[in-house]
Each structure stands twice: as C-alpha cells, then as structure tokens.
Amino acid sequence: MIKNALVWFKTDLRIEDNETLLRAIAQSEKILPVYCFDEAHFETTPYGFKKTGAFRAQFLLESLEDLDAQLRTLGSGLRIVMGKPEVEIPKLVQEYKAQKVFAKREVAFEEIQTEKRVRTELFKLRCELETFSTSTLYHAEDLPFSIKDIPDVFTNFRKKTEKDSEIRQPFSTPTKINSPEISPLELPTLEALGLIKNTIDSRAVLQFKGGESEALQRLNHYFFETQCLSTYKETRNGMVGADYSSKFSPWLALGCISPRFIYAEILKYEKQFGANDSTYWLVFELLWRDFFRFMFKKYQTKFFLYEGIKTEKVNSKSLNEKLLSQWINGTTPSDFINANMRELQQTGFMSNRGRQNVASYFCNEMNMDWRFGAAYFEEQLIDYDVCSNWGNWAYLAGVGNDPRGHRYFNIEKQAADYDKKKSFRKLWLTE
C-alpha cells in the first residue's frame, strides 16, 4: 500500500468503468484526482487553426465540472492545474509527497511524447507513472494479434477479433475515495484559454452538454426511453434531428462514458427488447473506433504525414486559401457541402454522412492537402478524437486504411440519396 498517489485524468472523465481510478484507490491510502489544462492543447497548429476550438473547450469545462461533482459525492474532488503536464504534475507530486501517478495510457504521437516527458520528470522524484488502457471496447492485450501484426483492413481486423476475443466486463463504480482536503473547483474561463464563447445554434441536432451524467442520460434516452437503438442501422445516415444516431461520440471522445459500458448496456437492451442488426451495428461502430486507436498504436506518426500509411502520393499537396475559405464558410458551388459546413461551424457537430462528403469534396474536387481539412475538424468538432479524426481523413484521402484505394463520393448523388427532400439543406441554407 502506498501512502499518497495522484490520479491524472485526461480523456477519461468518468468514475464508472474507470480502471485507472479504481487501481489508485485500491493501492493507495489517499489519492488526489487532478486535471491539467495542457497549454499545448490551446495553441495554433502549423495549419493555422486552433488545436481546440470554443465548442470543444466548453464541452470539456462542463465535463470537468460534472467529474468534480461526482468525485465530491465520494469524498474527493478535482484539482485543476494549467501549464505543461511535465512541469505541473511533478509539482503536485512534490506538494503531496506522492509515490505514484496513475493515468490513462495514450496511443497517439503527441500524447505519447507528453507521457514520456512526465515519466522522465517523475523518475527524478522517484515517483512511478502507471498507465492503464481504458479507451477501447476490446483490451489491447486480448486482441488475437500483436499490435504490429494488426490487419490494415478493417473487415479482417473485425472478423478475427469478434471470433477470437472477448469484451471485458466494465469495472464497478467506486463507493468512497480518501483524499486530502481539496478546495472548491476552479476552472479557467474560455477567455483565459484564449477562446470566445460560442452559443450552439438552435438548429443543432442536439444541445450537447459535457459530463458523465449527461452521457448516461443520453444513453438512457436513446436506448430505454425511445428504443431508437432498434432502428439505428436504418436511420444512422440521417442528417436532421437528435435521434437518427446515438450521438455518443462527444462523450466517448472525452471518456465521459466508456465503450465497454455502452456494450454492457446494449446486452441489457437486447435482453429486454431483442437483438437485431441495429443493436449489433452500434457495436460495429465502436469497433471502428477501436480499429483506429490500434492503427495509431501501430503506425504512430504516419497518420499525420501527407502520404499517410501509404507510400505513393495520391492527392495534391497544394493549398488554395480562397478555396479553403469557401469550404470552411460554406460558400462552395455545392449546396450540400455548404449546408454541412455551416452546421459544423455553428454547432461543432456534423453527421457521419456529412463528414465523408465534405472530406471527399476537399480532397477530390478541391484537390487540396487533406491535413488542412483534418486540422480544421480538430478545431471545430465537439467530438474530436485524434485517432478517429485523422484516421478517417487519411482513409478518405486515399492514404489510410481503405482497401479500395481512393474513395470518391459523387456529391450530387449523395445529396439526392440522403437529403431527398432537401430538408437538411433548407435548414442550414436559409438564414
């Protein structure tokens, strides 16, 4: 048993099914939960966009507020620090004489570098950093292949994983936490983070609000109150309204809910209302999320390179400022693209169908360097997840995991198929 430990929260802002938190409680007399606003997350990227835009930052602040409230019901709370994690975390270790820091394990390049720097500084203080894999449906250790041998084609990955691996049970929720005195939560304002508050447009599919409580409420609504899950496969390509898809992605991105918890709830749902293609399809989508995470573990920096994980270059490396501006502001020659881009700009969200179309348009019709599109999404999306975002963009640019090579969407046909009555375009293109 160690005397004092830190739990460093990152994108695992929940108390339900949180192995990191439970291990810390089990191994320590006292724990201090901490969240560090990493200054690097609020800088401008080399592509000219903010790394974190106002919609996502607002969602993060709400999620932290909720996490603090949850922790306080258990006798703890959340300590907030701002700066570089490799400076701030060791400072707290010294302040609380902590012998160990517990944290979520990272897979993407920048996050791994941050983790390494923190580990190096903690080593100097004779403090250990222990990490746990808490973001995926399937645990990396349970996969039927090593990370370096994971198939690059999703279907091959899915079939073998479904056949040979089990999904672990979610962890239970802690009932009590021993913590030192933690003063009331002090969150920075958006202004302090260099951002201007945006109000989500009233036409948004959902008025997203961060936090584990909201995530559980959304799940309950989508599953048990409306039984929308039973028709998910048929409706998931919708574009207007709250319930054409689960909309879990913003909460999943910050770890306000875990994929394994969702899976356990799907099993409960199936017992009550029956299993069908739709209940399976949500698991299928969670598997895509896993796949991109494991791909990032396998390829590390490659998903951020222009040529992606391929060797031959396919789309242009050029950037036309005028075209970029038209795309961002929804003033392109395509009304379908414009409606989607305005929805993103004014709400921080876009349907899956919309994302595929605007990315295809960016890479194929505008023939621009796909990474600028991915970087704009990184700034704007409430549900930005590094692996899903960059993995999907690389896929659509033809430099990722698409076995068919260059994927090209016929935008007019897509608009006719998915917005037959133009209700989506009317919603966003009439002021």
Secondary-structure topology with pairs:
Elements: E1 2-9, H1 19-27, E2 28-38, H2 54-73, E3 79-83, H3 85-96, E4 100-104, H4 109-124, E5 128-132, H5 154-164, H6 212-225, H7 232-235, H8 249-253, H9 259-273, H10 277-299, H11 321-329, H12 335-347, H13 352-365, H14 370-380, H15 386-397, H16 411-418, H17 423-429
Parallel strand pairs: 1-2, 1-4, 2-3, 4-5
Summarize the structure.
The protein contains 17 helices and five strands.
Task: Name a few traits of the molecule.
single chain; 431 residues; alpha/beta; Rossmann fold; Serine Threonine Protein Phosphatase 5, Tetratricopeptide repeat; DNA Cyclobutane Dipyrimidine Photolyase, subunit A, domain 3; five-stranded parallel β-sheet; 17 helices; 8% strand
